[in-house]
Amino acid sequence: MSKTIEGIYRNGKIELSKTPNDVCEGTRVVVTFLSPGSIDLREHGIDKAQAAELRARLACFAEDWESPEMDIYDNYDEEKAKLQTR
Q1: What residues contact residue 50 under an 8 Å CB cut-off, 6+ apart?
Q2: Residue 60's Cα: distance from chain center in Å?
Q3: What integer pLDDT is reported at residue 86 of this predicted model?
Q4: Which of 17, 33, 45, 74 could tie 6 with a disulfide, CB 3.0–4.6 Å?
């Protein structure tokens, strides 16, 4: 069985957004930490099929986006502010 429930990591513990009613106490879990700013596509009306199509259409850009030179854009506003204070 696999079930996904969103949660928040706080003070060394995971706080679930809702309590699963069909999961036994003591069930093993795997936790994946998401990057800040992750987007829940379902909240934007994008289902799995649409997400797969979008991923396929954007795949040609992945090499550029993931290159080390593009890391500066991860914190664009912060880096821009540093330049303006010089």
Answers
A1: 41
A2: 21
A3: 67
A4: 17
